[in-house]
Amino acid sequence: MKTFFKSFILLFLIFINIGTAQNKKTKVLFVLTSHNKLGNTGKTTGSWIEEFATPYYYFLDKGIEVVIATPYGGQAPIDPKSTDPSFQTDATKRFYADKKAQLALSKTVRLATVNHKLFKAVFYPGGHGPMWDLANDKNSIATIQSFYNANKPVAFVCHGSAALVNVKDKSGKYLIDGKKVTSFCNSEEDAVQLTKVVPFSLENKLKERGANYMKGNDWSSFVIEDGLLISGQNPQSSEEVASKLYSKIK
Predict the structure, then answer these.
(1) DSSP readout, 167-206?
(2) 3-class SS letters over 213-233
(3) pLDDT tens-digit map of 221-239
(4) Beta strand 229-232 with 223-226: parallel, antiparallel or unpaired?
(5) Which helix (H) or strand (E) holds 157?
(6) How far is Cα 25 from Cα 46, in angstroms, rounded to an integer?
(7) Which of 53, 1, 63, 3 is nearest to 28 (CA)?
(8) CB 153 within 8 A of CB 230
(9) What is the pTM for the complete model shown?
(10) Contact, 67 vs 114, CB < 8 A?
């Protein structure tokens, strides 16, 4: 009877330890746009699927849990242009064959309900949607401030950097004032013929906020790291941004 009791206790402790280990799994928060209208064009926008899929699988394959949030919760809109066959990558093809990932994107959590303490970092994919909502969303601004003030890295790719334009630090200055930052640049915006559609020039706005704006060649991976801030210029930069973010939390 004593042997049975000891075995039972041992199994119970193993079960508790496994559960504890699972609860301690590293988590990264992804914040995507809820906005789907491309200005007054009558067309739709949202997140750029590659900028979500590539980092998403990068972290999952490293054993990192990803939780997806949007301002409104529910379905995260995807820019239909990003689903064009010419823009597909191994990661996007994997996403379209992954029912679990598609379900996660359709049932995002409401950003205002997220407990920041559960996450090691936050990542903002791009697409034109963030220009309209994440640039001004109070919960997004509070999320970036919370992570940054807790010494946790914050990362952005392409138009995801729009989420930075109205974030201020503890002293009331713009968070990016004096910091190295990049984003989708003016010449790339001109190339996609949306300069007169977006609500503001992202490159110009970051400069106005005091950022030391930097950029590489159009449509080539270019990533800037300044302390806790990591930013990538365009869709081609998404994997490098994910890699640099991972190096800070592994």
Answers:
(1) -B-TTSSBTTTTSEE--S-HHHHHHTT-TTTSSS-HHHHH
(2) ECCCCCCCCCEEEECCEEEEC
(3) 999 999 999 999 999 999 9
(4) antiparallel
(5) strand 154-157
(6) 30
(7) 63
(8) yes
(9) 0.91
(10) yes
